[in-house]
Design a protein that fits this description.
CATH class of the largest domain: Alpha Beta
Number of domains: 2
CATH architecture of the largest domain: 3-Layer(aba) Sandwich
CATH superfamily of the largest domain: Thiamin diphosphate (ThDP)-binding fold, Pyr/PP domains
Number of strands: 9
CATH topology of the largest domain: Rossmann fold
Strand content: 5-15%
Radius of gyration: 21 Å
Length: 302
């Protein structure tokens, strides 16, 4: 998520939850979540109402029908001071996180700049499929789309290995569109055998492995909260290009910034499946984040 919506949740007067579960990934420490706010919860499943966060008003039904009824009753108010607080938070996030992700000054490639290059070359027309991990969060934050129904991801379940088979399904369902699978080196090996399905079906999936030689999300927690005591997170990977070649899938490996743009263009122009392995910085972290057990007001930017 973003810095402002997290931080300011605990300062709002009214909180409107639309089809959400108020799970711990959203609330942080639920005992300190929006205690000052009146909560209006629009939900189709009655089991979700008052399960984690007590509602002031619960509206059951399909939001296609209930949300217009709510908006009819809302009186216009520009809330200049409140909007200004969000803008201040956004300026801070751009400076401390977004600009560094998208335009890094370090020598190593960042995940954010890879997504930026894909954006620039796909022009918002591709279907994005992700696996699960740091790359998933970066792709969700920075990918641009021109159309709805353009993202396939394992959000609530968070199933590593999801990306490759899901991308094959997306390509078979939408054969005329680019399907780009953003996958980490850890998750890729969990369903790497599905390269055989690509070989048999000819599904022209564009696979982008963001390879940091780590299980990156777990490593980030071990770095920030366990004094860099890395346990079972550093990976010794095989040669992904050689494996892909065995399935007659062309590919390329890049590790330098000056190689990236041309490599992305080549991948998207290729007539058939393609594997682009990008060696990104080994210990890059994803922010903002709310540490376990903390309030959303304690969201971290570094």
């Amino acid at each position: 998520g973003n810095y402002g919506p997290n931080k300011l949740t605990n300062e709002c007067d009214v909180l409107i939850g639309i089809g959400m579960r108020f799970d711990d990934r959203v609330t942080g420490d639920v005992k300190r979540y929006a205690k000052q706010a009146k909560v209006i919860h629009l939900e189709i499943d009655p089991a979700e109402v008052n399960k984690n966060v007590k509602s002031s008003v619960a509206v059951l039904g399909d939001v296609k029908e209930t949300l217009p009824l709510l908006t009819e009753k809302v009186k216009p108010n520009l809330h200049h001071e409140w909007v200004l607080e969000f803008k201040k938070c956004m300026d801070i996030e751009v400076e401390k996180v977004i600009h560094k992700d998208m335009f890094p000054e370090k020598p190593g490639l960042s995940m954010g700049e890879v997504i930026r290059r894909i954006n620039e070359n796909a022009n918002g027309e591709a279907i994005l499929v992700t696996d699960v991990g740091q790359h998933q969060m970066v792709a969700a934050r920075y990918t641009k789309f021109n159309h709805t129904r353009s993202v396939v991801t394992s959000g609530g379940l968070g199933t590593m290995g999801f990306g490759l088979p899901a991308a094959i399904g997306a390509k078979l369902g939408c054969p005329d569109k680019h399907v780009v699978a953003i996958i980490g080196d850890g998750g890729f090996q969990m369903t790497i055998q599905e390269l055989g399905t690509i070989f048999q079906t000819g599904a022209a999936v564009k696979i982008v492995i963001l390879n940091n030689d780590f299980l990156g999300m777990v490593r980030q927690w071990q770095q920030l909260f366990f004094d860099k005591r890395y346990s079972s997170t550093e990976l010794i990977n095989p040669d992904f290009l050689t494996i892909a070649k065995g399935y007659c899938i062309d590919g390329q490996r890049v590790s330098k910034r000056e190689e990236l743009d041309e490599a992305v263009k080549k991948m998207l122009d290729h007539n058939g499946p393609y594997l682009l392995e990008v060696k990104v910085e080994k210990e890059g972290n994803v922010f903002p984040m709310v540490p376990a057990g903390c309030s959303v007001s304690e969201v971290r930017l570094e």
